[in-house]
């Protein structure tokens, strides 16, 4: 099969587009013909060696996939050749990745793709929608009628958080970098979107939420805790999920006086049952058209290195170049 793989960690240029033997599914695995894979920031950290993961070389990059079942292992139940499936959490913790024509995936990480939902849309939603679900449901416990502010509502995670918060009955405020992106975030369900560069951002959000926001979701690798705590209502929750090396200042006084909580999590540590439960809701929202993660561009497998460079520039250098996910079509 053709695959995008690495023989050692390094810059995006270490990704080779070449031939590897077809994977052979184990007894509890499903062989998937990958029709779409999505790029996520963590793909680039793993490739770079910035996040230490057990890697078996040649290592195929990529977490997300959507496609169709080619064959199933002897112990797999409920899946058969021809079924359309999607999944995430591959290319992590010793598992091979998804940027390849074929992937052998443990059956516990695969979910049926609803009729009417394209492989591109299923792959684009995979990791970011599971992340949004874990953060909103388990961590922030967003209740219907509560207000959330999503700092970076235009990114991969942000666009999923905006839509899933709406699906849960929340009222959504967000930030984004350009007028075009702010309009797009509002089309996804945010009531208002603000320029994150505004010096009076806190005051602007307070005008829209005079009693404060119940949840502040930080997508940035350097969390803005002063801003977050200033925006929060009494009993508010901050969600952090990025910035391994960040050591920002923290406004302890106003935080505890307001009785707030700070939640942090990494989606890849959620077990397969928890992620499958998220997938049930995600499939319902995908089917109903309540969730559609924007796609910036679709690239061939041979352009995976280019896709990693673009993703890095967007997430780490904050280039603002992307307006949605990058999809790889093998
Ligand atoms: N813990 C977990 O489980 C988990 C899961 C998924 C992702 N993550 C992490 O979450 C982070 C975001 O991932 P992603 O896929 O959403 O990245 P992304 O698609 O690159 O999105 C980046 C976002 O940051 C915004 N942004 C840029 N500069 C900003 C600023 N100064 N203030 C506020 N927002 C700003 C961008 O807005 P514009 O485009 O409008 O400029 C965009 O919305 C990454 O660090 C990733 O590693 C963690």
How would you characterize this protein structure?
This protein has helices spanning 41-48, 119-139, 156-167, 179-187, 201-208, 225-231, 252-257, 272-288, 304-315; strands at 2-6, 16-19, 29-38, 59-60, 65-72, 84-87, 102-106, 110-112, 147-151, 171-176, 192-195, 213-218, 232-240, 261-264, 295-300, 325-329. With 330 residues, it is of the alpha/beta class. The chain folds into two domains: 2-113 and 294-329, Alpha-Beta Complex (Quinone Oxidoreductase, Chain A, domain 1); 127-267, 3-Layer(aba) Sandwich (Rossmann fold). Strands 3, 5, 6, 7, 8, 15 and 16 form a seven-stranded mixed β-sheet that branches. Strands 11-10-9-12-13-14 form a six-stranded parallel β-sheet, sandwiched between helices. A three-stranded antiparallel β-sheet has the order 2-1-4, with no helix packed on it. Strand 9 (147-151), helix 3 (156-167) and strand 10 form a beta-alpha-beta unit. The longest helix has 21 residues, at 119-139. The mean pLDDT is 98. NADP nicotinamide-adenine-dinucleotide phosphate (NAP) is lined by residues 40-42, 131, 151-152, 154-158, 175-177, 181, 196, 219-221, 241-242, 265-267, 314-315, 318, 320.
Shape: globular
Instruction: Write down the secondary-structure element order.
Output: EEEHEEEEEHEHEHEHEHEHEHEHE
Average residue pLDDT: 98
Helix content: 25-40%
CATH architecture of the largest domain: Alpha-Beta Complex
Q: End-to-end distance, in Å?
A: 10 Å
The number of distinct β-strands equals 16
Q: Let me know the largest β-sheet.
A: 7 strands, mixed
CATH topology of the largest domain: Quinone Oxidoreductase, Chain A, domain 1
Number of discrete helical segments: 9
CATH homologous superfamily of the largest domain, by name?
Medium-chain alcohol dehydrogenases, catalytic domain
Report the top-level CATH class of the largest domain: Alpha Beta
Total domains: 2
Percent of residues in β-strands: 25-35%
């Amino acid at each position: 099969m053709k695959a995008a793989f690495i023989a050692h960690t390094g810059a995006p240029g270490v990704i080779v587009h070449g031939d590897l033997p077809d994977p052979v599914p184990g007894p509890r695995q499903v062989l998937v013909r990958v029709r779409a894979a999505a790029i996520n920031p963590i793909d680039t950290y793993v490739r770079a060696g910035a996040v230490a993961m057990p890697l078996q070389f040649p290592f195929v990059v990529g977490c997300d996939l959507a496609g169709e079942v080619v064959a199933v292992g002897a112990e797999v139940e409920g899946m058969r050749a021809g079924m359309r499936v999607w999944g995430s959490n591959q290319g992590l913790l010793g598992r091979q990745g998804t940027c390849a024509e074929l992937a052998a995936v443990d059956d516990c990480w695969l979910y049926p793709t609803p009729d009417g939902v394209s492989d591109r849309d299923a792959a684009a939603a995979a990791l970011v929608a599971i992340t949004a679900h874990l953060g909103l449901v388990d961590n922030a416990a967003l209740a219907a009628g509560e207000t959330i502010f999503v700092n970076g509502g235009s990114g991969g995670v942000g666009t999923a958080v905006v839509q899933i918060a709406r699906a849960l009955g929340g009222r959504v405020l967000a930030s984004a970098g350009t007028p075009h992106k702010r309009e797009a975030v509002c089309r996804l369900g945010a009531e208002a979107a603000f320029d994150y560069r505004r010096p009076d951002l806190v005051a602007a959000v307070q005008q829209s939420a005079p009693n404060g926001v119940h949840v502040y979701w930080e997508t940035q690798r350097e969390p803005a805790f002063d801003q977050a705590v200033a925006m929060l209502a009494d009993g508010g929750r901050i969600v952090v999920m990025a910035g391994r090396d960040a050591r920002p200042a923290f406004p302890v006084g106003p935080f505890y006086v307001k009785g707030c909580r700070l939640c942090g999590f990494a989606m890849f540590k959620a077990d397969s049952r928890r992620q499958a439960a998220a997938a049930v809701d995600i499939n319902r929202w995908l089917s109903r058209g309540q969730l559609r993660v924007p796609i910036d561009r679709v690239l061939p497998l041979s352009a995976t290195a280019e896709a990693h460079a673009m993703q890095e520039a967007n997430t780490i250098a904050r280039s603002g170049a992307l307006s949605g996910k990058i999809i790889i079509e093998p």
